[in-house]
Design a protein that fits this description.
Strand 3 and strand 4 form a beta hairpin. The model has no long low-confidence stretch (mean pLDDT 93). It contains 3 helices and 9 strands; from the N terminus they run E-E-E-E-E-E-H-H-E-H-E-E. By secondary structure, the chain is of the alpha/beta class. The chain has a single domain, classed as Rossmann fold (3-Layer(aba) Sandwich), CATH 3.40.50. The longest helix has 15 residues. 27% of the residues are buried. The chain has a 7-stranded mixed β-sheet with strand order 5-2-1-6-7-9-8, with helices on one face. A two-stranded antiparallel ribbon has the order 3-4.
Length: 150
């Protein structure tokens, strides 16, 4: 039984073991393409789903990784959109619903790891929009890793 959910895995780029059998890799899209620099981009989730409405029972996972799209401005067919996905300009209810659903499938005392790049939306805006407070995280770089516990 998998113990970890990556709720929006994309190309699994930060995973050391991209085939880790403890992880359910999920995303709302599938894609196989070549980027402008010649690298292959493969987004092939184990489960194709919307992270706002997951097909899992309450309290299923010990850990949830939540790395949603962080861009609202990217060309429709740009490599950025292909690699990272794009949020609509009405991103607040989308991210809020994603956090609630991640917490729903997380076991009591489970850990949620949230990754966010604040190139276009500040981390403080995300935190003001959700009902959960991080325990700790990296506050110095543009890409933030925050840790929550249920």
């Amino acid at each position: 039984m998998e113990r970890i959910l990556d709720a929006c895995c994309g190309s699994r780029m930060f995973w050391f073991d991209k085939e880790n059998t403890d992880v359910v890799f999920a995303d709302n899209r599938e894609l196989e393409t070549t980027l402008c620099d010649g690298r292959k981009l493969v987004i092939k989730p184990d489960v194709k789903m919307d992270f706002r409405n997951m097909p899992f029972e309450d309290e299923t996972f010990k850990m949830v990784v939540f790395d949603p799209p962080h861009l609202i401005h990217a060309g429709k067919n740009s490599w950025l959109a292909k690699k990272y996905g794009v949020l609509s300009s009405d991103w607040k209810p989308y991210i809020r619903a994603g956090f609630k659903e991640c917490m729903r499938v997380l076991k009591t005392d489970g850990v949620l790891i949230f990754k966010w790049n604040e190139e276009q939306i500040k981390t403080s805006e995300i935190l003001a929009n959700i009902d959960f407070k991080p325990l700790f995280g990296d506050k110095r770089a543009k890409t933030h890793w925050l840790v929550f516990m249920k």
